[in-house]
Amino acid sequence: MIHETADVQTDRIGDETTIWQYCVVLSGATIGQRCNVNCHVFIENDVVIGDDVTVKSGVQLWDGIRLEDRVFVGPNVTFTNDPLPRSKQYPDEFHQTVVRKGASIGSNATILSGLEIGRNVLIGAGAVVTKDVDPHTVWYGNPAQHQGYITEDNVLLDLDLRDEDGNQYELIQKEPVLQ
């Protein structure tokens, strides 16, 4: 479903995807299946969005942004794609920022250009992410700092890999697993 007030110029949109009011999607963009693009979202040409992605209101996805499957982008998250922006001066190629499968980015977070946000990561609201983020980690603050871990089952762990009940986990190939 594409709302009548949305300006959608691409035909590369998967089945069961919804694009809400006042969105602009340029002709080169690709959006997967079962996505929910909330109102007031802008999506540039060189953007690829996977399946089952949610993009909340007020987000701009600039050239070079890649969102893999099941990514959540909270309201007013800010992505950048040019580390040295100047008016009327454009790089030959914009930096690519990749948000890996299952990652969630909280509202008003800022993601600098050229970064990789790992699989199943949780970025807290208002965080300013200035470097790559390892899979299954929790980050928040300004600048964002590693604050803990998160399992595939969404159990939050502290930096010592313990959950709120004191259960100890271990990292197996960068993924926390209950011992």
Folded structure, characterized:
With 179 residues, the protein is an all-beta fold. It is 0% helix and 32% strand. The protein contains no helices and 23 strands. It has strands spanning 7-8, 18-19, 24-25, 30-31, 36-37, 42-43, 48-49, 54-55, 60-61, 65-67, 72-73, 78-79, 97-99, 104-105, 110-111, 116-117, 122-123, 128-129, 137-140, 145-150, 156-157, 169-172, 175-178. The strands form five sheets. Strands 2-5-8-11-14-17-19-20-21 form a nine-stranded mixed sheet, with no helix packed on it. The model has no long low-confidence stretch (mean pLDDT 96).
Summarize the structure.
With 179 residues, this protein is mainly β. It has strands spanning 7-8, 18-19, 24-25, 30-31, 36-37, 42-43, 48-49, 54-55, 60-61, 65-67, 72-73, 78-79, 97-99, 104-105, 110-111, 116-117, 122-123, 128-129, 137-140, 145-150, 156-157, 169-172, 175-178.
Task: Describe the secondary-structure layout.
Elements: E1 7-8, E2 18-19, E3 24-25, E4 30-31, E5 36-37, E6 42-43, E7 48-49, E8 54-55, E9 60-61, E10 65-67, E11 72-73, E12 78-79, E13 97-99, E14 104-105, E15 110-111, E16 116-117, E17 122-123, E18 128-129, E19 137-140, E20 145-150, E21 156-157, E22 169-172, E23 175-178
Parallel strand pairs: 1-3, 2-5, 3-6, 4-7, 5-8, 6-9, 7-10, 8-11, 10-13, 11-14, 12-15, 13-16, 14-17, 15-18, 17-19
Antiparallel strand pairs: 19-20, 20-21, 22-23
